[in-house]
Amino acid sequence: MLLLAILLPFVAAFIVPLLSPIFKRKLGYPVAIVPAVLFLYFLSFLPQVLAGNPVVIDYQWIPQMGIDFSIYLDGLALLFALIITGIGFFVVVYSIAYLGEKENLANFYNFILLFMGSMVGVVTTGNLLAMYVFWELTSVSSFLLIGFWFHKEESRYGALKSMLITVFGGLSMLAGFIFLYLISGSFNIREIVAASSQIVSHAYYLPALILILLGAFTKSTQFPFHIWLPNAMEAPTPVSAYLHSATMVKAGLYLLARLTPALGGTSEWFWLVSGVGLFTLCYGSFMAVRQTDLKALLAFSTISQLGLITALFGFSTKLALAAAFFHIFNHSTFKGALFMVVGIVDHETGTRDIRQLGGLRHYMPVTAMVIGIAAFSMAGIPLLSGFYSKELFFTASLALNQMSVVAWLFPLMAVLGSIFTFLYSMMLVINVFGGKTKKTRITPQRDAWGMLWPPMILASINILVGFFPHKTEGIFGKLVAVGPFAATAGPGLGEQMVNWNGVSIPLLMSATVIVVGFLLFQNQRKVVSFVEGVQNHRFNLNVLYDKSLIWLNDSATWLTAKQMTGFLRDYLVFIMLWFVLSIGGTLLYRGGLNLTGLNLSPVGPYEIILALVLIGAAFGVVLLPTRLAAILSLSSAGAVMFLFWVNLRAPDLALTQLIVETVSTVLFLLAFAHLPELKKEVVSKSQKYINMVVAGASGLLITLMMLSGNASRFYEPIANYYLEQSLPLGGGHNVVNVVLVDFRGFDTMGEITVIAIASLAVYALIKLRPGKRGNAE
Q1: 222-244 burial, b if ≥16 CB within 10 A, otherwise e?
Q2: How confident is the model at residue 8 (pLDDT cuts 50, 70, 90)?
Q3: Do 628 and 740 belong to one domain?
């Protein structure tokens, strides 16, 4: 049943085109049933999972390699599954009123369902290889969603940018998974977590960690891989609300959370993950202040918030993990609501430019209230859910005991990033909905209720959790108290999440954020000017990305021009040289050639004579001056092979060889009259030497590989089976005949068919006369 739930979005994606002519503009209603059903289904597992009984189901996938398609639904997976399906439902309902009549709704909902199924697959699979498959499906489906308005150049640019960066990260992640397999001998997540002590002490730990973090950082938009997210805002607002606040960017966070028990707890993990996360938090909030486009502001806001959560996973304590899970939930609700409200503003006013907006509370009072709740929750205002997860973040940063510099630097960075978060949250609400009314292309008349009720519900969740935080403590506390996180070091939540816990350092940090943030808001023009000045003098990563694509394209053009010369000789040199260097180098480095225990047949005078004749015929093909002589020399080489098979008492192969050589020779002779005159080619000495070296090395490597294959017996030779079963199963004493007719009857029939077709073709060519062909034409 759980497998069917995971596959449901993919199945529904095939049905959507059939429903499109029936529901037309209301196609979103039947599509919304899918995430609603999945949300309720996953919600039914909550009591079981919180009781410490995860759902584990294994299906055989590649049993020869011990790889299963495993479903693993624990507290972490359930949290993400509920977010994916719950936010997905609101986004689909919101899109019904948002998307216009001219949009290709069938494609849109197809892509949404494909992405939803991919994300559910990522978070519920218990196998790293299956996770990678779903991971890349999220990249493909997000590419389609970001480029949904493909007629816009900006949409195409953003889609390609996100694809290139996230796929690069995905391939790096796959390499890291392979390292984990080499260490633990398994792709199963549970077995990898169980081997955590073996992993962190292994020589492959650091390369595996860096490669996996590349996958997580590119997906979760950590610096410097964040540059794709602002360009992805060219997608329709429902896509931004779904992919870039609640789901796709959370895939990287899920990967960090899932592998924290296996890879976390080391100094390398702490400095890499926490350092990158805190820097991203400060950088994202700093850059959000200077944005004039509402969606661009929310994009950098998302980058900042994801940096906060990443830093918590780097801390790797029980309190930090609980705070991370709690803030993932909070971020999905308030950021989903913010994106939807920004979409309403754009839809009703025709602009997202903050400089052209103001006083919208007079026209859309309920919308102003919703964005105020969501933005102030993000800013960490008391009595809203974001305040409590921010408090836990401060508390976790103060609890670090790595070294003296961390004791003040990390809390300071946490406060600094939070100050700018408060600042841009105030700018988002006051500058757009407060102040005097400004003229826009479209004057809004009222709240857009068709799009407003989904963000209203999401914003209400922030109020509900804010008033009853202790009710939430049990859920997020249990997420790190059961399953793979149970052994995590550090104190738990305790009594952190209450409305009033007395005056404490985290509370003072929150007060500092609010006071300093409000003062900066009062002087926002100077702050924005300062940020823009810093921005103009910093190294531009987007320029680096653009120039790297140009360099990559120019390099590919140059390499193609050097390689694709139009000469067969050059192609063979490139192919065989790469074969020798890659395969031969690997075999020599790894000691893969086994030349001991060779079981070779004795070589008599007859074989020696035939081998010398064969070598002479091969030289004749390339050295004889006329094409006719070369054809005859080639045919004689085939005749020698025929004699070899006769000597080895293989009449079937001898007959096949004789017929094939006869047909080939006839075909060559028939085409002889149409071939151009053979001219002597002038070749430089360097080319001759290269030809000799590459040809000799290729022949030597293939010979050694054949000998090594003969010496390496991984399985019992099948010849013994034929010898034993020829009479009982085939009813014949002649083993060769039984193999050809009974055991390999279809293979023999295929060979006969090929020979018959070739023979008929030769006969047709011989009978065909130029005159008759001309008459037929």
Answers
A1: bbebbbbbbbbbbbbbbbbbbbb
A2: very high
A3: no
Q: Is the CB of residue 130 less than 8 Å from the CB of residue 61?
A: yes
What would the 3-class secondary structure string for 385-413 be? HHHHHHHHHHHHHHCCCCCHHHHHHHHHH
Q: CA of 362: how far to CAs of 342, 343, 441, 524, in Å?
A: 16, 18, 17, 23
Determine if residue 185 is left, alpha or beta; phi over 0 gives left, psi from -120 to 50 gives alpha, anything else beta: left
Tell whether 176 is covered by a domain: no
H-helix or E-strand containing 61? strand 55-62
CA 377 – CA 411 distance, rounded (Å): 20
Q: Are 190 and 76 in contact (CB under 8 A)?
A: no
Same-domain status, 291 and 355? yes
Q: How far apart are CA 25 and CA 23, in angstroms?
A: 6
Q: Are residues 742 and 662 in the same domain?
A: no
Residue 664 DSSP SS3: helix
Nearest to 262 by CA among 204, 194, 330: 194
> Is 675 inside any structural domain?
yes
Cβ atoms within 10 Å of 419's Cβ, excluding its own: 22
Q: How many domains is the chain partitioned into structurally?
A: 3
Q: Collapse the DSSP code of 688 into the 3-class scheme (helix H, G, I; strand E, B; otherwise coil) and give the result.
A: helix
Asked if residue 753 has pLDDT above 90, the reply is no
End of a domain among 488, 506, 524?
506
Same domain for 718 and 763? no
Nearest partner of 644 among 631, 626, 629, 661, judged by Cα: 661
410 and 297 housed in the same domain: yes
Check residue 309 and report its DSSP letter. H
- pLDDT of 362: 85
Of the listed ranges 287-296, 448-457, 716-725, the least confidently predicted one is 716-725
Cβ count near 164 (within 10 Å): 18
DSSP label at residue 201? T
Structural domain that includes position 731? 723-777
- Does residue 392 sit in the same domain as residue 344? yes
Name the amino acid, one letter, at 628: L
At residue 320, what is the residue type?
A: A
Cα–Cα distances (Å) from 276 to 16, 201, 214, 218, 470, in that order, read 41, 23, 11, 12, 31
